Amino acid sequence: MAEEGGGEEMDAVEKKAKENDGFRTMPFILGDLFTLPDAANDFCDRIANVGFSSNLISYLTLQLHLPLVEASNIITNFNGTANLTLLIGGLVADSWAGRFWTITSGSVMYQLGMVFLTLSAVVPSLSPPPCAKNATGCQRASSSQIAVLYLSLLCTSIGTGGTRPCIMAFGADQLELDAHGRPRDAKPMWSFFNIYFFGIELAKLTAATAVVYVQENVGWGWGLGIPTLTMLAAVIAFVSGYSLYVRLPPGESPLVRLAQVTAAAFKKRRAAVPDPSLLYQDKDLDAGISTTGRLLHTDQLKFLDKAAIVTAGDMLPSGEAKLWRLSTVHRVEELKPIMRMLPIWAATILLVTSGSHNGSFAIQQARTMDRDISPRFKIPPAMLIFTNVTMLLTLTVYDRVLVRALRRHTGHPTGITHLQRTGVGMTLAMLANAVAAAVERRRRSVAAASGLLDAPEATVPMSVFWLVPQYAIHGVADAFMDVGRMEFLYDQAPESLLSTAAALYWLTNSMGSYLGTLLVTIVHAKTRRSGQWLQDNLNRGKLDNYYWLVAALQVLNLVYYFLCVKYYTFKTLETVGDDKEVELDHVNGDDYAKKGAEASFR
Asked: For residues 43 and 120, is the Cβ–Cβ distance under 8 A?
């Protein structure tokens, strides 16, 4: 009996240890700030990223002497390229290298980019000479100096593609899986994504205050050197946790499976779809890509079901399926959620476009305004931290207060659904641009009344704190929008495509940034004759008209989003237990999500 009791004690200790494994790894991934898995790498990565990107418009215009529109387009193109590489990084992690090694290699590449950028600020030959006093024009950066800039931005873009799409999924693995890659019995009670974005915003806040202050008041050598050293610390911290991580091996390429489904459906395009119960199933074949349950058949996108129709010549003599001719229902249903998510995913692109000017035009607005706090302290134009502060506060209040209050009224575990949360964020982002337009109109009128229309370097007698409302509303909008759309993508994507789902989130940022470049380019070209909206001299420009244009586009986009939500079908899983299969909705663990979303947006 003693041995039996001792065995039970050991089992209990072992179970407890396994439950805590995920938490032991969080400080290495998200940072020592939280006692959750996987923080230092991403926290330091964001300090490094925001440390140079948040004030990049100042570096390009004041140090490299580039025109405002060209500098703005460089930033949005850089953001677009950086986020586009995330899709490639997600696919590499899912199908070839695994998440750990993809994050590691991406971090090293990012470090190289930061080193090149720092050298461009420190080595005199890599930047143009300072502007002479009372000079009418400044010497623009040469083509070779611009090439060094592009090389550093390219390296950081590639590095971002390796880290950002994997870090969230890798962190979630530490919480949800045991040391053998099996789902844990007990899952944390709070939202991993809320905490993840809280950590990101805290890192941004640190960079947008301390690092930007150094750049403006000490110099760009130290201002870029600090983020470079921070990124080095991130790489060391992440690699040092190697032995503690749950490291899932990469599976077969998800893109290959999706291509096989598409090819099989096309080959059988003239076949009639039979009763769903007659479609091909193979639990053994799907075992490695359905550890949390197989996807159940849905009635949407029925033409893809033809890939699971068994016809002559579809099977090998061994009894195995020819996967380019025949797919299982689970594999067909892997493709369907991706296709169903795309319309909603596309609706969020304009959200990124609407905020893309915060890192360029809004900073230049702030540079023209009164930024004095005291005779000895002036707020740097890129140190408008109110977006970060309000997002941090909103995330805290949302997770601790709002969810509980809403839960009592809706009965939904998270208060409101992912799609409802995103819709609230889209509405607030539209309001933020309307406020930005009103504030800019006020700033120009003050400049005109002060006789400063032709004095772009002069300080307009209007406090920079007039910009606080638009930044604050953007922060609240981001707290709703960013977490909502990430949770939606992560929840609806098949388990074998989680890194790819995270990459889709960042691909939204890529498309939004490119759309921002396109919109600025079109507006700049079309308003040339009627009074250019976007000028180096903002006092003579009509930036408020640009903000109103973006707000109008957001109204149309919001209507489109509501229609997409109304007709969206959530994925379903089957779980196997006690020798019977149970069908359940896989959205927040119940069927409230779709009903709540439809009720809210009708």
From this structure: no
Give the range of the structural domain holding residue 230, as residue numbers without chain letter: 26-241
Buried b (16+ CB within 10 A) or exposed e, 120-153: bbeeeebbbeeeeeeeeebeebeeeebebbeebb
Question: For residue range 221-258, what is the model confidence (pLDDT) as tens digits?
Answer: 888 888 888 888 878 878 887 777 777 777 666 778 88
Instruction: Report helix, strand and coil shares of the chain as percent, to nearest 5.
Output: 70, 5, 25
Category of 427 on φ-ψ map: left (φ > 0), alpha (ψ -120 to 50) or beta: alpha
Closest CA to 478 of 581, 389, 365, 376: 389
Retrieve residue 512's tokens: 């939004």
Residue 397 sits in the same domain as residue 523? yes
Report the 3 state secondary structure along 513-538: HHHHHHHHHHHHHHCCCCCCCCCCCC
Span 491-519, pLDDT tens digits: 888 877 776 676 677 778 778 888 888 88
Phi, psi of 449 (to 5 degrees): -65, -25
Residue 569 lies in a domain: yes
Domain count, the chain: 2
Structure tokens that stand for 410 in this block: 């809706």
Dump strand ranges (E) for 207-362.
Answer: 294-295
The residues, any chain, with a CB within 8 Å of residue 539's CB and separated by 6 or more, are 368, 444, 447, 448, 452, 453, 454, 455, 456, 460
Domain finish residue from 241, 276, 295:
241
Query: Do both 208 and 346 map to the same domain?
Result: no
Provide the CATH number for the domain around residue 472: 1.20.1250.20
Bridge partners of 377, per DSSP, are: 374
Domain match, 230 and 365 both: no
Let me know: does 169 contact 177? Beta carbons within 8 Å: no
Q: Cα–Cα distance between 90 and 529 in angstroms, integer?
A: 45
For residues 572 and 596, the answer to whether their CB atoms sit within 8 Å is: no
363 within some domain = yes
Instruction: Say if 349 falls within a structural domain.
Output: yes
Q: Which of 186, 209, 241 is the last residue of a domain?
A: 241
* Type and span of the H or E element at 574: strand 572-577
Shared domain for 344 and 211, answered yes or no, is no
Show the low-confidence residues of the chain (pLDDT under 70): 1-45, 52, 54, 133-137, 168-169, 172-173, 175-194, 251-253, 291-292, 358-359, 382-384, 499-500, 502-503, 530, 573-602
> Quick one: 229 exposed, middle or buried, by C-beta within 10 A (0-12, 13-18, 19+)?
middle
**pLDDT for residue 183:** 58
On whether both 364 and 233 belong to a single domain, the answer is no
In a domain, 438, yes or no: yes
In angstroms, rounded to a whole number, what is the distance separating the alpha carbons of residues 460 and 469? 19
Q: Report the alpha-carbon distance of residue 602 to residue 52 in Å, rounded.
A: 43
Cβ atoms of 268 and 513 within 8 Å: the answer is: no
Question: Are 341 and 469 part of one and the same domain?
Answer: yes
User: No. of H helices and E strands in the chain?
Assistant: 21, 7
Q: Give the distance, in angstroms, between the CA of residue 84 and the centroid of all CA atoms in the same chain.
A: 11
